[in-house]
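[09:14] KT: can someone run the structure on this one? pasting the chain below
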Amino acid sequence: MSNSGYRVAIVGATGAVGVLMREIIEERNFPVRSLRLLASSRSVDKTFQFHGDAVAVEELNETSFEGIDYVFSSAGGSISKQFLPHAVKAGAVCVDNTSAFRMDPNVPLVVPEVNPEAAFKHQGIIANPNCSTIQMVVVLKPLHDLAKIRRVVVSTYQGVSGAGAQAMAEAREQIAAALNGESFDSKKFLHPIAFNCIPQIPHGAGSSPFNADGYSEEEVKMIKETVKILGDPSVRVTATTVRVPVLVGHSESVNIQTETKLTAAEARLALSKAPGITVVDDPANGQYPLPIHAAGKDDTFVGRIREDHSADNALNLWIVADNLRKGAALNSVQIAELLVA
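[09:31] RB: done, structure tokens below
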């Protein structure tokens, strides 16, 4: 750490996303003068390396934010709601990776490649969108600018890393047990994830994790967040979100209808020039986005771009990204980079 820069705190510093936030802050040389790692009392005295220094984890409390400039939070919505107002009162700017403030009309919901200007309208808190929403809107934005998207139909295939490190461990254990013909329990998910596809529903949800219309919370997030980020209430969105036995990476099948005709070649060209996107679209030679290739990468990958002949002005796309990086930690750091730039 240097004598110049900003005083930074990470809330949920020992979780999968919190750990990655610290690593990405270091990778990208975000200007840090001091780093405070905050978590529950169970994690106190754990240490992590940052630019060659050992940084001990401190217990999160209401006074943890004195002297802090930027807070990155990823410890759950209830924690953010409880503690981030104290951080704002102490003078910090907070980038929150939970759902706590995303649909608050006074809190900007930001993806830097899509709506960077919104970040500067904050009142102390900036919300980081849902991981599935982020990778989709990164791809939708250039196409919306070209031909105005009227409707989006998305189906997701979401890796278990979105449910945390314990969920990843459970998936490994279940798969190993299933291969050995052994029985196993499901703790992080309502149904087994080994060799299975299940609705993406809140962890530990009961028997009715859907709303009255049959939509899950994740599906509602994608619908509402997409409209807010694009800033166009005329865009209609529907979603089906599914958890699959992939460790890291979310994949999405996306169908869009545009106001004016957009050919697959035109879409491919526009996306190849857009920031944060890598086009991988040579299916004849087995080249298309795969979660195993996206893991550990910063970009959002798009391919299988083709015209949908069943509807006017419609395209199909296949979108893949590392949900822990672009879907969470990286996007959060990029938001702070906008402000310090």
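[09:33] KT: thanks! DSSP finds eight helices and 14 strands in the chain.
[09:34] RB: yep, looked fine to me
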